[in-house]
């Protein structure tokens, strides 16, 4: 079934999808709807990650403007802050995932955030294109399924 959905992305896919039985069309529609939902979840996750990185980049910018020795609140979690003093604004710890942190300069930290933001935006655009194609396939399968069901329905 995956080969039918995958091959329908080309120009001749419409002919192939119209030849499917009602049961096959239902299966194709269900599968592509499921894939669209998963892709939409991934798009949401990418948007969330991008937003967090943009917040981190802005925080780095704000931190670079503060003088050494400045008292501030340091976030330990999303809702827990402790008092602290800014020791050296030129060195930051960057969370690179799975509990690993790397010490970088402020400029390297900002650069890391920007590169990750650009990568996520690129991935978002590619994923959006795939999701749109899958949605079109699901819509097409649904329309053909409705037409076939209408033909099979008894006329009064």
TrEMBL record:
<dbReference type="GO" id="GO:0051082">
    <property type="term" value="F:unfolded protein binding"/>
</dbReference>
<dbReference type="GO" id="GO:1990113">
    <property type="term" value="P:RNA polymerase I assembly"/>
</dbReference>
<comment type="similarity">
    <text>Belongs to the prefoldin subunit alpha family.</text>
</comment>
<dbReference type="GO" id="GO:0016272">
    <property type="term" value="C:prefoldin complex"/>
</dbReference>
<dbReference type="GO" id="GO:0006457">
    <property type="term" value="P:protein folding"/>
</dbReference>
<dbReference type="GO" id="GO:1990114">
    <property type="term" value="P:RNA polymerase II core complex assembly"/>
</dbReference>
<dbReference type="GO" id="GO:1990115">
    <property type="term" value="P:RNA polymerase III assembly"/>
</dbReference>
<dbReference type="GO" id="GO:0005737">
    <property type="term" value="C:cytoplasm"/>
</dbReference>
<dbReference type="InterPro" id="IPR011599">
    <property type="entry name" value="PFD_alpha_archaea"/>
</dbReference>
<protein>
    <recommendedName>
        <fullName>Prefoldin subunit 5</fullName>
    </recommendedName>
</protein>
<dbReference type="InterPro" id="IPR004127">
    <property type="entry name" value="Prefoldin_subunit_alpha"/>
</dbReference>
<dbReference type="InterPro" id="IPR009053">
    <property type="entry name" value="Prefoldin"/>
</dbReference>
<dbReference type="GO" id="GO:0009409">
    <property type="term" value="P:response to cold"/>
</dbReference>
<dbReference type="Pfam" id="PF02996">
    <property type="entry name" value="Prefoldin"/>
</dbReference>
């Amino acid at each position: 079934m995956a080969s039918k959905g995958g091959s329908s992305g080309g120009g001749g896919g419409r002919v192939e999808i119209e030849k499917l039985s009602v049961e096959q069309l239902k299966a194709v529609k269900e599968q592509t709807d499921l894939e669209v939902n998963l892709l939409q979840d991934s798009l949401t996750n990418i948007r969330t990650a991008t937003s967090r990185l943009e917040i981190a980049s802005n925080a780095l910018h704000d931190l670079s403007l503060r003088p050494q020795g400045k008292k501030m609140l340091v976030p330990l979690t999303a809702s827990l802050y402790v008092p602290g003093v800014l020791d050296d604004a030129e060195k930051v710890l960057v969370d690179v995932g799975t509990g690993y942190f790397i010490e970088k300069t402020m400029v390297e930290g900002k650069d890391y955030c920007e590169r990750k933001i650009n990568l996520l935006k690129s991935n978002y655009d590619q994923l959006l294109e795939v999701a749109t194609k899958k949605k079109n396939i699901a819509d097409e399968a649904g329309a053909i399924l409705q037409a076939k069901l209408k033909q099979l329905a008894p006329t009064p």
